Amino acid sequence: MTRSRNAKTLISLLALLSSSIPASTNAEDAIQYWTNYAIYPQRCINYNDNDQIMYSMFEQSSNHCTDTPIGTYVASVPTFANAYLEQAADNAADAGQDDYEYPAMADYLVCTYKQINGGDYYLQLGCNDEDTSLLAVNTYSDAQCTEPSSLNGYDDANLEVDFSISFNKCTSCVFWTDKNDDEIDDQYYANKQTNAPLCSSMWDYKEECNGKCQMTGKGTTEREGWNKADKVLLSILSLFGFGMLLAIMKKRQKMSNKDALLEQAAISAAGLQQSHILGMFFLLILIITMFALLGLKKITWALLLMLNIVLFSYLMKLTVDGSVKETVIGPDGKIVEKEESDDEDDDDDEGHISPTSTTGPGKYENPELPNVA
Questions:
Q1: Which among 16, 169, 161 has a CA at the least distance from the CA of 78?
Q2: pTM for this structure?
Q3: Please, what is the angle between helix 274-293 and helix 257-269, to 10°?
Q4: What is the mean pLDDT of residues 101-126?
């Protein structure tokens, strides 16, 4: 495999890494088999005046980094980037790609001298000033790359970075490819499980990222907003709830006096009034709106779904109650349906005078009978 990296850069980097191995690294916490482990790079931060990658390690890659991590750590950008590139080269070799080449940014994994606009500077790969998910080549004034130097108002060298780290992505420590039995030897699987360049290096060079460290990372991360799909679903649920509210108002206008009295009695039995119900309803709408504007997705979805379920249940109740007709048993034992308007019809019949009647209401006269000869 062709790996076109400058030999001087390799030697300098290896010397740098060898001198930076923490003294706490020992055989007690060493991991031999990396098959089930995963690593989750989070962001690039400046912590303790040093550009570092914050990442978490997980014991079960099958959970896709959703469970509790073993720990959250930091490592310098050059250390993490070197291990990341070694893992990429190993994956390419395992996939049969013999022409893998390291990116040009690999030359800046160590502190490198360069003249820019007639000035003497030292360059090294680090964090981008504006985006914690991007890398940049930073400028320094000393050969150890510890004193940042400003160039056009920024410490970025404005060099095109042809290398990136997949932040906020769960990555398995062991990368498997389909292999035929005649392509591998007996040691292939054992080597794959024990040789994980990225995870093993980050485990060896890890430094604990305490609460202050993790807050530093969160401080530069913007709250995740509503994406396009979220907005579409939010609009659909809101319109659905508004439509059910209009349907409820329409059905309540057609509610019989009997059903209205029964509903009012049930509300009073609960120690509430109708104004209390309306107040809680509009307060809930206000709370949902506030949470949505703050970008609190989970609680917004939960409250909105709960509101829609309540409206739908009440609408179904009104629909069922409105479709049930009052029934009575007739003299012949048969069930006779009684319409809600029967009472009104009876009232109308009592005051109705037959057009053929010659007498007023309440007066009786004997009928005239024909004379029989």
A1: 16
A2: 0.56
A3: 70
A4: 90
